[in-house]
Design a protein that fits this description.
The complex is a heterodimer of chains A (113) and B (187). With 113 residues, chain A is an all-alpha fold. Chain A has three helices and no strands. Chain B has seven helices and six strands, in the order ααβααβαββββαα. In chain B, strands 1-2-6-5-4-3 form a six-stranded antiparallel sheet. Classes of the chains: A mainly alpha (113), B alpha+beta (187). At the A-B interface, α3 of A face β1, α3, α4, β2 and β3 of B.
């Protein structure tokens, strides 16, 4: 019984931790926590993603503004084109009427001015 | 005091800008048709200055009509058209037409064509604006019973150029082409 008690006491006696153990434990704990973090949670990745999203949003907005301006310019241009054609059509029609009247006047022997 | 001067100065600038715009729009269209516009049942108003003509030119296609338009507008500094349609005939008076004609009595304008037809009742005058012996514009005044049309073309254009309008813009080609050599002053 004494032998058993002695063995137990010897086994359970308090011994001071080896020097540098706490540092080793902390280092391993840090390493483990590093291995456990997903790559996308790293700050560098997060900031990069945020930056890319911001740039994409700005570029998207600018592109939409550009194409909207282009679309509006095309619409204005088409309107201007239609106005030019209408103006020339009206002018041509009036000149055509004059031409007909002149022709008629000449054929009638200058009856009408 | 300084504030008051600034306000006066700003008001003067605004007044000058307004007067300047009014003057330039009047120069672009030599007759005042505002009263007619009030009475008209249908109004067509087209104002295309050089900038707008150049802008429109970029959008003209390669079709024959568009190419002809491109060729004509390349010479022009502006086209201004006003058409007033009236449901009731004789809504405007002969004296009104005469007052429009008087506005072209200055030395810079020459009437090259004056046509009066009884059937259909239609008067057409064509005036040419001369500057330094060169054509600088043209004005067409066409008065029908139910419609008045004013066309002001600004730029070095001749009636011969306008003959090219034939065959395009919905105008039959053979008619004008046939008459082209005889298209002279009928005054």
């Amino acid at each position: 019984m004494d032998e058993l008690e002695k063995a137990l006491k010897s086994a359970l006696r308090r011994e001071p931790a080896p020097e540098g153990l706490s540092d080793q434990v902390l280092e391993k704990a840090t390493l483990r926590s590093g291995k456990g973090t997903a790559w996308w949670r790293l700050p560098v990745v997060r900031w990069s993603v945020a930056g890319v999203v911001t740039v994409a949003c700005i570029a998207g907005g600018a592109s939409e503004h550009f194409w909207e301006q282009k679309r509006q310019e095309r619409m204005r241009g088409e309107q201007a084109r239609q106005q030019v054609l209408l103006a020339l059509r009206i002018t041509g029609t009036k000149l055509s009427v004059v031409q007909k009247q002149i022709d008629k006047a000449i054929n009638d022997g200058g009856g009408q001015q | 005091m300084r504030m008051r001067l600034r306000v006066k100065h700003s008001a003067l600038v605004v007044l000058l800008v307004v007067l300047g715009n009014r003057a330039s729009s009047q120069a672009a269209f030599p007759v005042d048709t505002a009263k007619l516009a009030e009475r008209a049942d249908e109004t067509t108003s087209i104002s295309l200055d050089k900038t707008m003509l150049q802008f429109a030119g970029k959008f003209l296609s390669s079709s024959e009509e568009d190419r002809e338009a491109q060729r004509i507008i390349a010479k022009l500094d502006g086209i201004y058209v006003r058409t007033y349609g009236f449901k009731k005939p004789n809504t405007y008076s002969a004296s009104e037409i005469e007052s429009f004609r008087r506005q072209f009595s200055g030395p810079e304008w020459s009437r090259i064509v004056a046509v009066h037809a009884k059937d259909p009742d239609e008067d057409t005058d064509i005036y040419v604006h001369m500057t330094d012996g060169r054509v600088a514009g043209m004005f067409i005044l066409a008065a029908e019973a139910g419609e008045l049309t004013f066309v002001h073309i600004v730029g070095a254009i001749t009636p011969e150029d306008l003959d090219q309008l034939s065959g395009n813009f919905g105008i039959p080609k053979k008619h004008l082409k046939k008459e082209q050599p005889r298209g002279e002053d009928q005054r």
